[in-house]
Amino acid sequence: MNKTQNTRFFKFFINELKPKGKIITPFNVISAITILAAIVILVIRFKDGLGSVSDASQERPWGLWINFNVITGVAFAGGAYVVTFMVYILGLEKYRPIVRATVLYALLSYMFYAGALLLDLGRPWHIMNPLIGNSFGISAVLFLVAWHFILYMGSLLIEFSPTIAEWAGWLRQRKFLTSLTIGVVIFGITLSTLHQSGLGSLFLMAKPKIHPLWYSEFIPIQFFISSIFAGLSLVIIMEMINQRVFRKNMLYTYKSSHKPIMISLARICGVTMFVYFFISVLVFIHGKNLTYLNTFWGYWYLLEAVGFVLIPCICFIYAYRHNNLSLTRIAAFITAAGIILNRLNISTIAFRWYANDLQFPTWMEVVVSVAVIFTQILVFRWIARRMPVYTEFPHWLIREKKEDKSSTNEKKEKKWKVIVD
Questions:
Q1: pTM recorded for the entire structure
Q2: Quick one: how far is CA 155 from the chain centroid?
């Protein structure tokens, strides 16, 4: 870009920083208070050390910021690789209206949850080790997960970059970035399948510490499969909220296609949840864990397996067969709660189950975790209100698409003329 274009873009960006919508709302006020409190807590954390705000110990080194924000949050970001696979690889165009919002949410999730990981490290400056080659640790699962996180964040950024280019009016850059989409999507899907299961692989090394009802050699596979319906459940919840928040500026195409898309996602969730439940039953039988059922842990396990997997699975299938959007949303909320429960069971609740020393997060950890989520929502809202995530494409892009369509039709007409002649 030349100097004139740079000046024009700078003025445009400054103008875009102006608030769009009401500033004083209950959500904004609560978010602002929470974020300010989190900033104070983080100053204390980096000044006095991790122990000043966290209840972590040598026996339980991972706190809420890793077990909830990272391990659980990454599962919810799984909707991006599922939706992009359906749209760009399988060519299922009916899911295209939710692609950009899903990719944006996943991109922000990885950015903010990687930041949450940074907060829970005793020596956070060592996070650069996997990048600069200092103690590479290529045989460690965390090394694999770290690089997958970094590469997948880059992939999501490139997938979303055409939207940024449309917003900024960068015509040439958009054409180039759009040409990268298919290759980047394939690369991103590969990374997702690896690091979703890679997070589960971390717990393979903790067999003596995890309750037998939750531990198995198939944890990586279960983490991967559960990330499919976890991500899509959050897409259903997110789209339900976005239909209300962005309804005024949303294209009619997005509004009218909402119900059919959500019902279709219900079918996918139902099928994958049945596969997950079936594998869990096989693992339970293979592990000979029947003796644990008539205990507190057995009842807790049944609550998770039946109440938060089997029941929402049946609800999803019933909702799909009867075209019931309300039941789809209810099942999505139950599924999301079940994913949180499952990840916390493995990483916290059923971890060191024999010691009877369940670790509860401090109120400061909770405040920071909630602040991270609020910040992610605020950034998502800021972008969705300005960039063509749900709104109409810029005029130059609509004109460009019409020209491409007309040139394609002309080529087809010439082709048919040659065949007729």
A1: 0.89
A2: 14
